[in-house]
Design brief:
heterotrimer, A alpha+beta, B alpha+beta, C alpha+beta, A: alpha+beta, Aldehyde Oxidoreductase, domain 4, 3 domains, seven-stranded mixed beta sheet, six-stranded mixed beta sheet, 28% helix, B: alpha+beta, Ubiquitin-like (UB roll), DNA polymerase, domain 1, 38% helix, 14% strand
Chain lengths: 706, 155, 280
C-alpha cells in the first residue's frame, strides 16, 4: 500500500464523535427569527389572491417582491425563489413568515389563505411536451445494424425517485449587515459558491457583499447541491427585510416534500444481435422526469446518456434523451447523477440478452467489454488502462461468483431460493464535458502561516466524505509535512477562492490535483517562518475536446471502474430477500485513504442496494406518497451484511498521487447486482427498480416479467 | 415543571410535561449533541439513555423522565468507555457526516452496558433504530465489536 | 391549554380520568402519540405507576400490567414465546424500551404488531374505573370485543386499561405457534401485513386451531367460525381441504393499497403464509 493510502484519524473525528461539531441547527444567532412557509397546494395554478392573517408584532411576511431578482440561479434561472403569479408544483414556496417563535410562524402560515385558479397539470413524464433538455448522439449506423440483425431485443426499464435521506435536514441562517450592505449566509451545503452566485443575483449585490459560510454538513449526496441556494435566497430576503438574522431549518417531512430527488426514468433499449450473439447495434431512448424547473436536469441527462452503454463496446449506437418538465418537485442531484438509472438498465439488459443467448451473464459481458484505446459512444477514447479483467479476477477470488452462479442455476426447491448477481460499471470523473475549463475554472490557494502551518483555501466542502482529511493528506504528502501542520476549515467565501462545487466526484481529482501542484511549488519556494501563498488554477488536460452541441469528444478526462456482486436468498412466500454477501471491487486510481475509501464504498453500495430494493418513493397527484422516514425506507443495520471491498491499482497521472473520482462510482452497481441476484433466485426477468417484494410476487403471478 | 436527573445532576425543567424531551435537552439545557433527524422515532439521531436504556428523545414526553436519570452524550463523553468507543469508531472508520454518531455512541453504550460480549447480530439489532446514510453500517458494527473486544472490564 | 397530570397511583389516575372523561388522554410510552403530535386538554402520564409494571401468573391466567414495556416482556420467560417474538419484531430497541403492550392494544392500529398474536392467545383486556365508593371496578373484554376498528376501542371515557390477561391454556401444549410480520425492512418498519397461528394436534387430529391476520382490515381478521370448521379435521383431511380453507379466508381479507404495499400483495402473502402454516 502506498504511503498516502494508509488510513489516518479523520481531522474532524473527535469533534463529530463527541457531539461538539456544530451543525446549523445547533447554532443560535442573537435576536434570530425563525421562518415557516406558505406553500402551493396545487401542482399547477394561478395565484389569484393571498390573504394574510394579522401579523403580531415582530412577525413579517416575505415574498418574491422582497428580492431584486426573483430568479434562482442554478445553471439557468427559470425557477422563482418565491412563486408570485403561478405555482408549478405542490410545495413550491409562495411566501414565508418569520418571527421569534417558530410555532407561531407556522400557525400564521396555516392561517394564510391562498386562492388559486387551477390550471391543467402535467403529472406524467410521458405526457409532457416541454423539456428541460434534449440530446442526441450516434455512432456507426444503427439502422443498418438493426436491418441485418439476427435478433432484435427491445426492453423498457423504469426507475423510481430516490431520496438522498441525508440524516441532517436542510438548513441555513442569514444575517444582513445594513451598514455595510452585506449578506452572510451560514448553512448545510455542498457548494458555497453556488449559493454565493444565487445570492448575488437575487439581492443584486456584488461579490464582496455576499458571504457564504459552510457549517458542518450532515450528509449531502447531491441533495445539498442546488437546494441550499434556494433556501439561502429565501432566508436572505427575510433577513434583509427584518433587519434581524433569520434561520430556516426544515423538519424531515418538509425536507422530503420539497427538496430535489433522483430523477425517475424510463429507458428504452433496442438491441441488435448477430448470429454469434454479438451486440452489433443499440438504440437507446431515455426520458427523465425533471419536475417543474430545469435545475440540474440537463447535466443529469447528459450523464445518463453517457452511461447508457455501460462498460461495453457497441459500434453502432444511437442514443437520445429528454428531461421532461412536469408539475412535480424539481428533480436534482443524487450521487451518480443520472448514471444509476442507466447502469441499472444496461446491466439488466446484458443479463437478459445473456439469458436469451444461453451464455452466462459474465461470459456475455466479457464478449463486449471495452478495452484501452476503444472509441467511446461520443467519439472520445478510453485513453487509459481499462481494468475490467483485473476487477473480474479479484471479484471471482473474493466472492466465488462463477462457482455460486453455476450452483444456483440448478433447480432449487423449498421456501428460500438463492441467487447471485453481478454488475460492471464505470463513472466518468469530474464534470461532463468542458465545464471545468469553460465554467468553473477552479482556483486554489495554499497559505503558509508564519508558524509554518499550511492552510488549504478551497471552496470544497466536507459533508462526511472525509474531504478535510484527504485534502490535508495530499498537501502533507506533497509538502513532506506531518498532517497536523495542515489546516483545512469549512469554507467561507470571504476567505477561500472558488475552487468549484463539491459534486461529480471532482474534488479529489480536480481540486486535489491543484493542491498537489500548489504544494510542490510551495515546497520549492519554502522559507521557514515567513508567510507565503501559492495559487493554482485548473489546466485542461482533455485529449479530444468536448462539443456539447454535437455531443462529441471526450466527455471525461478519465474513468473510474467498479464491479459489485450481491448474493441473496428470496423467500418464495413473501418475495422478501435476505442478503448473504456483498462484494465491491473498484478502480479509483490511487486510494487517498484506505478507510475513508472503504467507507465511501460501503455506504455507496448500500445506497445502491436500497435504490434497487426497498427505497420506494412514488408521486401521486404531484405529491409524494412516502413523505417521512416512517414510510420512505432506507436500509437499517439489520438489512445488510458484512461485505468485502477491494481496490485494484490503476493510478491516473492527471489526479493527485494517481487518484481518480470515487464517491459516486460506488453507488452504481448495487441496484443492478441486487436485481440480477433476485432474477437468478426466481428465474424471472425484471425491468423496474425499486424491485420491491410486491413487484417480485407480481411477476410470479403473471408467470412472467415486470 | 418536571424534575429529573440530567447527566448526574438534579434538574428541574420549566417546560410543560408534554414537551419533547429532545427540545428540553437542546433548547432549555443547551445540550446539542442530541440531534433531530426525523422527529418521529425512526432515525435514532436523538437517542439518549434513560435509566441506562436507549430511548428516542423526540418521541418522549418530558413527563416520562420524571424522577428518572437521563444521560446524553455530554454526560458520557468524559468516561473511559466513551474514549474507547471514540478510538474504535476512528479505527473502524465509523464516522462520516457525524449526524447519526451521537445516537450511535449512545446505542453502543446501551448495548455494551447490558451485553459486553455481543454477537454481530446483536450489534446490528442494537443499532437497528439508528439510521446512517453514509457508512452502510458495517464499519459501525466493526467499531462496536472492536470496543467490546478491547473493553474487557469496562462494561 | 393542556393540563398535564402525573398521578402517583392507579386510583389517582382513574380519578383524574373519571373527572376529565373524554377530554383526557393517557400516555404510556408515548411512542405512537408523540410522532402523531396528539394532545388532549388533559394528558395523564402513566410512567410513574409501578403497580402497572408487573407480570404475574396466578393459577391459569397470565396477567401483564399495562405499564410493561416491550423490552421488559421480551426478557420475561413467563411470557409465551410467540408473543415475545412478535414484540421483538416491533421497531427497534429504543422504541421497545419505551413502548408498552397495553399501548399497542389501546392505540388499536390496524397494523399493531402484537394484535394478531393477542387474538390467537385469546387475550382479555382488563379495563378499570373508579366507582363512587372509591373502589376500582374492573371489566374484562376479549380482545376482539375491545378493539372495534381502526383506532377504535370499547374503552369507556372513565376507564383505563390496567392489564392484558392471557389464559395459560391458550399457549400451553401447542404443536405449532407462529407469528410472522411482513414489513418493508428488517427493523423500524410498520407491518404491511402480519399473521399469527396457533394449533394443537393430537393423534393426527387438529384439536385446536386459531388464526389471525393483521393490517388486512380495520381490525385483526380472525374467524372463530372458520376455525371451528378446521378443528377436528385429521391432517389428511386438512391437506385435502386446504384450498377451500384458503378461499374462505380470502373472502374475509379486506386489504388496501397504500404507501406501504398493495392490496394484491397483502392478500397473496397472507394466504401463502396461511397455506405454509397449515402444512403440518
Amino acid at each position: 500500500m502506498k504511503n498516502i493510502s494508509k488510513a489516518v484519524e479523520k481531522k474532524d473525528h473527535k469533534q463529530k464523535t463527541s457531539g461538539r461539531a456544530m451543525y446549523i441547527a445547533d447554532k443560535k444567532l442573537t435576536g434570530e427569527l425563525q421562518a415557516a412557509f406558505v406553500r402551493s397546494e396545487l401542482p399547477h395554478g394561478r395565484i389569484l389572491k393571498i390573504e394574510l392573517p394579522p401579523l403580531p408584532e415582530g412577525y413579517l411576511a416575505v415574498d418574491g417582491r422582497d428580492l431584486a431578482d426573483n430568479h434562482l440561479q442554478v445553471i439557468t434561472a427559470e425557477q422563482p425563489v418565491f412563486a408570485t403569479e403561478e405555482v408549478s408544483y405542490i410545495g413550491e414556496a409562495i411566501l414565508l413568515i418569520a418571527g421569534p417563535d417558530l410555532a407561531t410562524a407556522r400557525c400564521l402560515c396555516r392561517e394564510t389563505k391562498v386562492t388559486y385558479e387551477e390550471l391543467p397539470a402535467v403529472l406524467d413524464m410521458d405526457k409532457a411536451s416541454a423539456a428541460a433538455a434534449r440530446y442526441h448522439f450516434a455512432k456507426g449506423d444503427v439502422a443498418a445494424a438493426l436491418a441485418r440483425a439476427a435478433q432484435i431485443v427491445e426492453e423498457t426499464f423504469t426507475t423510481g425517485y430516490q431520496e438522498q435521506a441525508y440524516l441532517e435536514p436542510q438548513g441555513v441562517a442569514a444575517c444582513w449587515d445594513a451598514e455595510e450592505g452585506k449578506i452572510t449566509v451560514y448553512g448545510s451545503m455542498q457548494c458555497p459558491y453556488y449559493v454565493h452566485g444565487a445570492l448575488m443575483r437575487a439581492l443584486n449585490l456584488d461579490a464582496q457583499h455576499v458571504r457564504v459560510v459552510q457549517e458542518v454538513t450532515g450528509g449531502g449526496f447531491g441533495g445539498k447541491e442546488d437546494y441550499p441556494s434556494l433556501l439561502a435566497c429565501q432566508a436572505a430576503a427575510a433577513a434583509r427585510k427584518a433587519g434581524a438574522p433569520v434561520r430556516i431549518i426544515h423538519n424531515r417531512r418538509e425536507d422530503m416534500a420539497v427538496t430535489p430527488k433522483r430523477h425517475p426514468g424510463k429507458l428504452h433499449y433496442a438491441a441488435a444481435l448477430d448470429a454469434q450473439h454479438h451486440i452489433i447495434g443499440l438504440k437507446i431512448n431515455i426520458c427523465l422526469d425533471a419536475g417543474a424547473f430545469p435545475g440540474l436536469s440537463s447535466v443529469v441527462l447528459q450523464r445518463s446518456l453517457l452511461s447508457a452503454v455501460g462498460v461495453y463496446r457497441v459500434d453502432n449506437l444511437e442514443a437520445e434523451g429528454r428531461a421532461a418538465i412536469t408539475n412535480t418537485v424539481p428533480s436534482g442531484a443524487f450521487r451518480g447523477f443520472g448514471a444509476p438509472q442507466s447502469v441499472f438498465a444496461v446491466e439488466s439488459l446484458m443479463n437478459h440478452l445473456a439469458a436469451k443467448t444461453g451464455m452466462t451473464p459474465l461470459a456475455f459481458r466479457l464478449l463486449h467489454g471495452v478495452k484501452q484505446g476503444d472509441e467511446t459512444g461520443t467519439g472520445g477514447r478510453y485513453h487509459h488502462h481499462v481494468p475490467l479483467p483485473d476487477l473480474i479476477a479479484r471479484a471471482e477470488e473474493l466472492s466465488g461468483y462463477s462457482r455460486k452462479y453455476a450452483e444456483y442455476a440448478r433447480p432449487q426447491t423449498g421456501r428460500y431460493r438463492r441467487g447471485i448477481g453481478l454488475a460492471l460499471f464505470l463513472h466518468g470523473c469530474g464534470f461532463t464535458g468542458s465545464a471545468e475549463k469553460d465554467v468553473i475554472r477552479s482556483r486554489l490557494i495554499l497559505r503558509k502561516n508564519a508558524d509554518d502551518r499550511v492552510e488549504i483555501l478551497a471552496s470544497n466542502t466536507d459533508m462526511g466524505q472525509g474531504l478535510k482529511t484527504t485534502f490535508s493528506k495530499i498537501a502533507a504528502e506533497a509538502l513532506g509535512l506531518p498532517l497536523e501542520r495542515i489546516i483545512c476549515r469549512n469554507p467561507d467565501t470571504d476567505r477561500v477562492p472558488n475552487s468549484g462545487p463539491t459534486v461529480a466526484s471532482r474534488s479529489i481529482l480536480i481540486v486535489g490535483k491543484l493542491i498537489e501542484r500548489a504544494a510542490r511549488r510551495l515546497k520549492a519556494e519554502w522559507v521557514s517562518g515567513r508567510e507565503q501563498e501559492v495559487q493554482e488554477v485548473y489546466k485542461d488536460d482533455v485529449l479530444i475536446p468536448w462539443d456539447l452541441e454535437k455531443f462529441r469528444g471526450d466527455a471525461y478526462p478519465t474513468y473510474s471502474w467498479g464491479l459489485n456482486v450481491v448474493e441473496l436468498e428470496e423467500d418464495r412466500l413473501t418475495g422478501m430477500t435476505n442478503l448473504l454477501g456483498i462484494w465491491g471491487v473498484f478502480d479509483v486510481g490511487t486510494v487517498i485513504d484506505y478507510t475513508i475509501m472503504k467507507g465511501q464504498a460501503e455506504g455507496g453500495i448500500l445506497q445502491g442496494i436500497g435504490y434497487g430494493s426497498m427505497e420506494k418513493l412514488e408521486a401521486q397527484g404531484g405529491q409524494f406518497r412516502q413523505g417521512s422516514f416512517t414510510d420512505y425506507l432506507i436500509p437499517t443495520a439489520m438489512d445488510t451484511v458484512e461485505s468485502e471491498i477491494a481496490f485494484v491499482d490503476n493510478p491516473y497521472d492527471g489526479g493527485p498521487f494517481g487518484a481518480k473520482g470515487a464517491g459516486e462510482l460506488t453507488l452504481l452497481g448495487g441496484a443492478p447486482a441486487y436485481v440480477a441476484a433476485v432474477e437468478q433466485a426466481t428465474g424471472r426477468a425484471y425491468h423496474a427498480v425499486p424491485l420491491t417484494p410486491e413487484r417480485i410476487l407480481a411477476a410470479e403471478d403473471k408467470g412472467g416479467e415486470v | 415543571m418536571v424534575e429529573f436527573t440530567l447527566n448526574g445532576k438534579n434538574v428541574t425543567s420549566q417546560q410543560p410535561p408534554h414537551t419533547r424531551l429532545l427540545d428540553v435537552l437542546r433548547e432549555e439545557f443547551g445540550l446539542r449533541a442530541t440531534k433531530e433527524g426525523c422527529g418521529e422515532g425512526e432515525c435514532g439521531a436523538c437517542s439518549v439513555l434513560v435509566e441506562g436504556m436507549l430511548w428516542n428523545s423526540c418521541v418522549t414526553p418530558l413527563a416520562n423522565v420524571r424522577r428518572k436519570s437521563v444521560t446524553t452524550l455530554e454526560g458520557f463523553r468524559d468516561t473511559e468507555r466513551y474514549r474507547l468507543l471514540e478510538q474504535c469508531f476512528s479505527e473502524a472508520g465509523a464516522v462520516q457526516c457525524g449526524f447519526c454518531t451521537p445516537g450511535m455512541i449512545m446505542a453502543a453504550e446501551a448495548l455494551l452496558s447490558h451485553n459486553p460480549w455481543p454477537l454481530e447480530a446483536e450489534i446490528r439489532e442494537a443499532i437497528s433504530g439508528n439510521l446512517c446514510r453514509c457508512t452502510g453500517y458495517n464499519m459501525i458494527v466493526d467499531a462496536v465489536r472492536r470496543a467490546a473486544a478491547k473493553g474487557a472490564g469496562l462494561w | 391549554m393542556v393540563t398535564a397530570c402525573m398521578p402517583a397511583s392507579v386510583a389517582e389516575a382513574l380519578y383524574m380520568k373519571k373527572k376529565a372523561g373524554e377530554r383526557a388522554m393517557f400516555v404510556a410510552g408515548g411512542t405512537d402519540i408523540m410522532p402523531a403530535r396528539q394532545t388532549a386538554p388533559v394528558m395523564i402520564y402513566l410512567q410513574g405507576l409501578h403497580d402497572l409494571s408487573r407480570v404475574s401468573r396466578s393459577g391459569t391466567v397470565l396477567s401483564i400490567g399495562a405499564g410493561c414495556s416491550y423490552t421488559q416482556l421480551i426478557h420475561d420467560e413467563l411470557i409465551p414465546l410467540v408473543l415475545r417474538e412478535a414484540m421483538q419484531s416491533i421497531a427497534a430497541p429504543a422504541i421497545r424500551n419505551a413502548g408498552t403492550l397495553a399501548g399497542n392494544v389501546c392505540r388499536a392500529s390496524p397494523a399493531g404488531d402484537t394484535l394478531p398474536v393477542l387474538h390467537v392467545l385469546e387475550a382479555v383486556v382488563v379495563a378499570g374505573h373508579l366507582a363512587d365508593s372509591g373502589a376500582i371496578v374492573e371489566r374484562r373484554l376479549a380482545i376482539e370485543k375491545f378493539i372495534l376498528g381502526n383506532r377504535r376501542t370499547a374503552l369507556r371515557p372513565e376507564e383505563m386499561v390496567l392489564a392484558v390477561e392471557i389464559p395459560c391454556s391458550s399457549y400451553e401444549n401447542l404443536t405449532k405457534m407462529q407469528s410472522c410480520k411482513v414489513g418493508g425492512r428488517k427493523a423500524q418498519a410498520i407491518a404491511k401485513l402480519s399473521f399469527a397461528g396457533i394449533c394443537r394436534v393430537k393423534a393426527d387430529v387438529l384439536q385446536d386451531v386459531r388464526l389471525a391476520f393483521g393490517a388486512v382490515g380495520p381490525a385483526v381478521v380472525r374467524s372463530r367460525e372458520l376455525e371451528k370448521k378446521i378443528q377436528g379435521l385429521t391432517l389428511t383431511e386438512l391437506a385435502d381441504k386446504k384450498n377451500d380453507i384458503l378461499n374462505e379466508y380470502a373472502a374475509l381479507l379486506q386489504p388496501l393499497d397504500d404507501q406501504r404495499s398493495t392490496a394484491a400483495y397483502r392478500r397473496q402473502v397472507c394466504l401463502s403464509l396461511l397455506e405454509d402454516y397449515l402444512t403440518l
